[in-house]
Amino acid sequence: MMKIGGIDKMIDLKQIAEYTQGGIVHGKEDIILENFSVVKRSTKLKNYFFIPITFQKKDREVYILDHVRNGCIGFMINRNSVHKQEIEEEAIQINPNICILEVESVNHALFRLGEIQRKKNFLK
C-alpha cells in the first residue's frame, strides 16, 4: 500500500465493504481502488470507482450506467433502490468484471469512509 502524506492512497473493495457495512454483489473483493468520483459527468480518471451521492435532492444513481460505459471499475448503489436490479444486470452486461457494492445509504457510506480514513490517518 502506498502512502501520500500519511494518507492511504489505495484501498481494496473488501475494506470499503467493511467500512461501509456494505455487501459486495459482484466483483473481486481484493481489487485495489485508487480513484473515486462523485461527479455526474464522465471523468478523465482511469480505473475509478463511482459513488453516486444524492446532492441537492438529486439522486446521481441515474448516472451509474453512463460511468460504467465510460470505464469505471465499480460503483456503490443503495440497497433499497427502485432500479437496483436493472442497473446491476445492465452494468454486468456492459462490463462482466464490474465491482458492485450495495450499501444502506450511499451518502452515509461516503461519510463513514471519510470518518474512518480521518481516524486512521489524522488522529494517531
Descriptive notes:
By secondary structure, the chain is an alpha/beta fold. It contains four helices and eleven strands; from the N terminus they run βββαββββββαβαβα. The protein has helices at 13-20, 64-69, 84-94, 106-122, and strands at 3-4, 7-8, 11-12, 23-26, 32-33, 35-37, 48-50, 54-55, 58-59, 74-78, 99-103. The strands form four sheets. A five-stranded mixed beta sheet has the order 4-11-10-7-6, sandwiched between helices. It has a two-stranded antiparallel sheet with strand order 1-2. The longest helix is centred in the last third of the chain and has 17 residues, at 106-122. It starts with a strand and ends with a helix. Mean pLDDT is 84; it is low at 1-8.
* Secondary structure tally, helices: 4
Overall 3D form: globular
Provide the low-confidence segments as ranges.
1-8
User: Count of DSSP E strands?
Assistant: 11
> What helical percentage do the residues reach?
25-40%
Arithmetic mean of pLDDT: 84
Radius of gyration: 14 Å
Task: Describe the SSE topology.
Elements: E1 3-4, E2 7-8, E3 11-12, H1 13-20, E4 23-26, E5 32-33, E6 35-37, E7 48-50, E8 54-55, E9 58-59, H2 64-69, E10 74-78, H3 84-94, E11 99-103, H4 106-122
Parallel strand pairs: 6-7, 7-10, 10-11
Antiparallel strand pairs: 1-2, 3-5, 4-11, 8-9
